[in-house]
């Protein structure tokens, strides 16, 4: 089942291992936090892993936008087909290393991914403009469209990578692995949408080097189901990560975000800010683990997860989790789920705003602590605009005023 | 300092035998109130007498249930209108405890409110000018424009912002719910000045207050005393002074005279 031609032996080997792993492991169940709020089987077509492995994987076409300044500075953005001969060493060293194949879903992706992009930003190159990757997969019945992205950010380099995954039909799985060299800075933002009746699984795995700084942003706007995961590993002292997450689940959509901030070294810092809105019969979920390893003294970790319910039939869960093996650290976490503030709605309506306008204003205020931290104004505007239009669509899609469902 | 009250003109607000409450408890027990164009009415009374409830019921707060009576605003049945419709029709409520809306900057809130109430967009430059003038008028620093609405504001700052909204939105009738409470003397003067300028501009006012001191700056045409959910006495500005010196005890209704329920309820 070669996806690329030629497919080098290391990849064939890795695919075989992943295939065997996928078939030998049971699907994760709800006993662990990771799949507490999503049935893993719902991310696969009928017939499960076996059938998905047998079906020819759907294509994963990506539109790549690489700014001229990046090209001139020696930055490359290649499809896997192009990268395998050209950047084989980089792929052999890192492909699958960060995200792994430790469960059937990740193993399935590695065994069957059919497209994606490999981006290499040479050491010391600082890019002003973003690199954009847009994938709009359509998966035929019985298949899982699978794609991967590998980002290699050299020491001291600076880059922004904006990834869009917009699933039109069926099931899809996308895995991004990002390696940040010492002193590198990466802003990685993902916008993830999934049409009604579709399911998208994504994982973003990061390795953050010494004094390197990662900002990872995730905007989840499913009409169907999105299960997104982020896993930054702060591997050397001075590494920092900041996760910014916005999620909206209207209609009957399901949004499930998982983050594991793994402090593998001392003097590292991580923070996660999550804001979700559920309306109609939508459900949003957050599980976040702050893991401080034994050697990670003097680390600081912060996590705040808040969800807003705009209707009585919407539901939200937030579940923070700490695993602290070194006590010379500072960990803070907060979590809340609350309905819309009726007094605030009344206040805004006494100023002439309609209920929908007032609710939108409260939603924008609610997400502002996250939106305003997005490092690029363009990104923040885009997140706000998408949120606004998805909110409007979710409202009309549910066929009634929110709050009265 | 008040604008010209139009005696004999058609009322803008007519409240007839209004009964209302919340959670099964009746709070308003037959309120009658008529406000004509340009009039300033002060409603005074003890804590818990139902004064604030009256303003919230008139504005359409969803927690209150109207149990009887009728209310007409500019000839329309107010009780059939939702909160938004009441605001757009020209009714305004200055809150005793304005709600904080974190994440929403004051300027974008005000612009949306202005657009919603006036039914037209105000060009950005014109809006900025209007806002700057209104800020200066009320002694509010320009930096407030980018602060989040009422978030972390002191009591005085919140009250100034309420009066600023009164100035900007130019309603027909403003219900001011203890806008003078919690203000020091300088803030009281500034806030009262803003209210007085609105009155001069033609806004009619129902002012709920505990204290006579705001009435030194905003002269009422009519003073009402509220007791146990209804107006028990009405007079001129001298009634406020009398209350200041005598308190409320002398007005307590003799036993057995309280109304027992809304007519037809």
Question: Which key features would you list for this structure?
Answer:
heterodimer, A: 405 residues, alpha/beta, 9-stranded mixed beta sheet, 9 helices, 39% strand, globular, disordered C terminus, B: 265 residues, Rossmann fold, 6-stranded mixed beta sheet, 4-stranded antiparallel beta sheet, 12 strands
What does this structure look like?
The complex is a heterodimer of chains A (405) and B (265). Chain A contains 9 helices and 18 strands. In chain A, the strands form 2 sheets. A 9-stranded mixed beta sheet of chain A has the order 1-4-6-8-10-12-14-16-18, covered by helices on one side. In chain A, strands 2-3-5-7-9-11-13-15-17 form a 9-stranded mixed beta sheet. Chain B contains 7 helices and 12 strands. In chain B, the strands form 3 sheets. Chain B has a 6-stranded mixed beta sheet with strand order 6-9-10-3-11-12, with helices on both faces. A 4-stranded antiparallel beta sheet of chain B has the order 2-1-4-5, covered by helices on one side. Chain B has a two-stranded antiparallel ribbon with strand order 7-8. In chain B, a hairpin with a 2-residue loop joins strand 4 and strand 5. The chains are: A alpha/beta (405), B alpha/beta (265). At the A-B interface, helix 7 and helix 8 of A face helix 2, strand 7, helix 3 and strand 8 of B.
Topology (SSEs and partners):
The complex is a heterodimer of chains A (405) and B (265).
Chain A: H1 9-24, H2 48-54, E1 62-65, H3 68-72, E2 76-79, H4 80-86, H5 88-94, H6 104-112, E3 115-121, E4 131-135, E5 144-153, E6 158-167, E7 171-180, E8 185-194, E9 199-208, E10 213-220, E11 225-234, E12 240-249, E13 254-263, E14 269-278, E15 283-292, E16 300-309, E17 315-324, E18 330-339, H7 342-349, H8 355-371, H9 377-397
Parallel strand pairs in A: 3-5, 4-6, 5-7, 6-8, 7-9, 8-10, 9-11, 10-12, 11-13, 12-14, 13-15, 14-16, 15-17, 16-18
Antiparallel strand pairs in A: 1-4, 2-3
Helix pairs in contact in A: 1-6, 7-8, 8-9
Chain B: E1 13-22, E2 25-35, E3 40-45, H1 51-59, E4 65-73, E5 76-77, H2 83-89, E6 91-94, E7 101-105, H3 106-118, H4 124-137, E8 148-149, H5 155-169, E9 173-177, H6 185-200, E10 204-209, E11 222-227, E12 230-235, H7 237-246
Parallel strand pairs in B: 3-10, 3-11, 6-9, 9-10
Antiparallel strand pairs in B: 1-2, 1-4, 4-5, 7-8, 11-12
Helix pairs in contact in B: 5-6
